[in-house]
Amino acid sequence: MEAVFDVEASASLTDRQKQRVLRKAGGTLRAIAQDERSQARNRELAIERVADSLREALHVERRRRPTKPSRAAVERRLEQKRRRSQTKRLRQPPRD
Question: Is the pTM of this model over 0.70?
Answer without folding.
Answer: no
